[in-house]
């Protein structure tokens, strides 16, 4: 059975992400909440959740001895499928600009910056349901591509240096990336675990993905 390492570094959405992944797997994958470097390095897929500030999340992840190195082994060296959720997606970037500048994992070159809607009536944090402009052909995005909305709650977004790394866009007083994809790595700014059936469909698609 496929092993999926759901990285435990104290993220607030860890348990809801676990429940959604277990439901999406429907017995076809073993979802393991872990910060054991050996398990992570050997996992068939890796999921990094995240809520909160970029700097705090990066510090918490770095404090788990050997986990970042194990993620590098699994994802970057072995090519295991990777999914970053919300701040888990943002940590893939080169750096985050929240409470100063903090280095990220650097897996997808780019910056995490605060969103600034052109319409002052649109509030930040950006919270609620939005439709996406999906530009990726990955099957896991079939639901949003068909017009099914997904749930957001965030103030910062990831802006890749190369727009070819953007898998989907969202508009909240201006367009910004809602998802990224490069090789065996995918990240979503929205919360699939809070996006009901479309979110479960995305997670199921990720679990079946063979990049």
UniProtKB/TrEMBL annotation:
Gene Ontology terms describing biological process: L-histidine biosynthetic process
Catalytic activities: L-glutamine + H2O = L-glutamate + NH4(+); 5-[(5-phospho-1-deoxy-D-ribulos-1-ylimino)methylamino]-1-(5-phospho-beta-D-ribosyl)imidazole-4-carboxamide + L-glutamine = D-erythro-1-(imidazol-4-yl)glycerol 3-phosphate + 5-amino-1-(5-phospho-beta-D-ribosyl)imidazole-4-carboxamide + L-glutamate + H(+)
Positions of the catalytic residues: 86, 191, 193
Domain Glutamine amidotransferase: from-to ranges: 6-197
Entries under PANTHER family matching the protein: IMIDAZOLE GLYCEROL PHOSPHATE SYNTHASE SUBUNIT HISH (PTHR42701)
Organism: Phenylobacterium kunshanense
Subunit structure as annotated in this protein's UniProt entry: Heterodimer of HisH and HisF.
UniProt-annotated location(s): Cytoplasm
GO terms under cellular component: cytoplasm
Signal peptide residue numbers: none
Pathway assignment: Amino-acid biosynthesis; L-histidine biosynthesis; L-histidine from 5-phospho-alpha-D-ribose 1-diphosphate: step 5/9
Functional description taken from the UniProt entry: IGPS catalyzes the conversion of PRFAR and glutamine to IGP, AICAR and glutamate. The HisH subunit catalyzes the hydrolysis of glutamine to glutamate and ammonia as part of the synthesis of IGP and AICAR. The resulting ammonia molecule is channeled to the active site of HisF.
GO MF terms, alphabetically ordered: glutaminase activity; imidazoleglycerol-phosphate synthase activity; lyase activity
InterPro entries: Class_I_gatase-like, GATASE, Imidazole-glycPsynth_HisH
Keywords: Amino-acid biosynthesis, Cytoplasm, Glutamine amidotransferase, Histidine biosynthesis, Hydrolase, Lyase
Matching SUPFAM superfamilies: Class I glutamine amidotransferase-like
Protein name, entry field: Imidazole glycerol phosphate synthase subunit HisH
EC numbers, comma separated: 4.3.2.10, 3.5.1.2
């Amino acid at each position: 059975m496929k092993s999926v390492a759901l990285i435990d570094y104290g993220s607030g959405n860890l348990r809801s992400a676990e429940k959604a992944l277990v439901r999406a797997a429907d017995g076809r994958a073993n979802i393991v909440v872990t910060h054991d470097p050996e398990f992570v390095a050997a996992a068939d897929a890796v999921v990094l959740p995240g809520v909160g500030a970029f700097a705090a999340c990066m510090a918490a992840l770095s404090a788990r001895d050997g986990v970042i190195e194990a993620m590098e082994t699994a994802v970057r060296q072995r090519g295991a499928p990777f999914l970053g959720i919300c701040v888990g997606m943002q940590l893939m970037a080169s750096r985050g600009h929240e409470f100063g500048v903090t280095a990220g994992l650097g897996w997808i070159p780019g910056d995490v910056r605060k969103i600034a809607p052109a319409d002052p009536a649109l509030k930040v944090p950006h919270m609620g349901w939005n439709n996406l402009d999906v530009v990726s052909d990955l099957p896991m995005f079939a639901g949003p591509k068909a017009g099914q909305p997904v749930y957001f709650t965030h103030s910062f977004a990831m802006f890749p240096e190369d727009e070819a790394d953007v898998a989907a866009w969202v508009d909240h007083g201006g367009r910004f990336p809602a998802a990224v994809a490069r090789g065996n790595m995918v990240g979503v700014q929205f919360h699939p675990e809070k996006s009901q059936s479309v979110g479960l469909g995305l997670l199921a698609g990720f679990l079946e993905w063979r990049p």
